[in-house]
Amino acid sequence: MSEPAGNTPILPSAVREHHARRPRFADLRPRRMRRAGWAALAAAGVGSLALAFVPSPYVVEVPGPTFDTLGSTEAGELIVVEGTETYPTEGELRLLTVAYFGNPQRPLSWVDVAQSYFDPADSIIPMDVAYPPSVTVQEANEAGQIEMRNSQSAAIAAALIHEGEEVVSDVRVAGVIAGTPADGVLREGDRIVRVNGATAYDVWSIRASIAAAPGASTFDIEREGQPLTLEVTPAVDGESRIVGIYPSNEFTFPFQVDIQLPNVGGPSAGMMFALGIIDEITPGAMTAGTRWAGTGTISALGEVGPIGGIVQKMHGAVDAGASHFLAPAGNCADVVGHVPDGLTVFSAATLDEAVTAIETVAMNADTSGLPTCG
């Protein structure tokens, strides 16, 4: 830009030349900056677009479907009891699930992961945690189905034992994972009698016995009718001690109890199955119409164990209309500070504590003495 007419200064020639060049540089610099700015924006846009198609090493854990153990699914009544008297029920005892968004065959993009970051109901976890590299998706699904069957058997046993019924237990090896410590030692079909001297009453007791032993674990088994004593040294994975078997509960019950919940895997519905069975076989509606949801593994002796995805399950409970929630005592650290509005949470370490919480609320009695995660 030139000086205004009538205001041109008188300068030496060298200075005048330098002064005359400055307008040309002043004109070019903004132009170049603008071009650089647009180039940067274009590059960012191309980069963002490319990122949308780049697979990430994460999956997102989200609230899954919920099911009322006192109700029905497309397969029919979720719990069917035959051979003993049953009673009408009210309200809901809803079990909860979580689902993974993404898997090794269909990984999420970084954009998918970023969107889930802002949803309190979602949890972003590493792919190899959700799907260990040593286990295929099919193997993981099969393991989940075995855990579900074990959970159902243990829930039936826990409910009947809670009500004073006689239950005979039998635990067998349903499968051995290749390459694990048990591979070549234990076999599918082996009946597990004792682990480290403790009676193998159910899957829970086996895991507890393995966890308690610092070194090798001793398995007293029966194979094709012959007693054997074998040793397996567990692999250590963080705080877990893994031998690499899928145990299967086989119980003999005094009457028939069937649980029908297709296409759902894992052990975390055990407590809610047991509560549904108790409500079916005892007089009066245990909930008195209250809508409950909950989660937790169960042992045949009624011990409630921690599970994964507790935050997602609490959000799933609210979405399903539940007002009260039962959380395993072992999950309280994950519960505190994450309870959604409108949900009252009680903790339970045993099936008896869970029943007491439901009955106390049903009677409109004082709940201040009930265990919570507060």
Considering the chains and any ligands shown, give keywords for the structure.
Pdz3 Domain, alpha+beta, single chain, 374 residues, four-stranded antiparallel beta sheet
What's the helix and strand layout?
Elements: H1 13-51, E1 58-68, E2 72-73, E3 76-77, E4 79-82, E5 92-101, H2 110-116, E6 123-126, H3 127-130, H4 137-162, E7 168-176, E8 191-195, E9 198-199, H5 203-212, E10 217-223, E11 226-232, E12 235-237, E13 240-242, E14 245-252, E15 256-259, H6 270-281, E16 291-294, E17 297-298, E18 304-305, H7 310-319, E19 324-328, H8 332-335, E20 344-348, H9 351-362
Parallel strand pairs: 5-16, 16-19, 19-20
Antiparallel strand pairs: 1-5, 1-6, 2-3, 4-15, 7-14, 8-9, 8-10, 10-11, 12-13, 17-18
Helix pairs in contact: 4-6
Structural overview:
The structure is a single chain. The protein is an alpha+beta fold and 374 residues long. Among the domains are: 1-51; 168-252, Pdz3 Domain (Roll), CATH 2.30.42.10. It has helices at 13-51, 110-116, 127-130, 137-162, 203-212, 270-281, 310-319, 332-335, 351-362; strands spanning 58-68, 72-73, 76-77, 79-82, 92-101, 123-126, 168-176, 191-195, 198-199, 217-223, 226-232, 235-237, 240-242, 245-252, 256-259, 291-294, 297-298, 304-305, 324-328, 344-348. The strands form seven sheets. It has a six-stranded mixed beta sheet. β8 and β9 form a beta hairpin. The chain is globular. The relative contact order is 0.15. Residues 1-29 have low confidence and may be disordered.
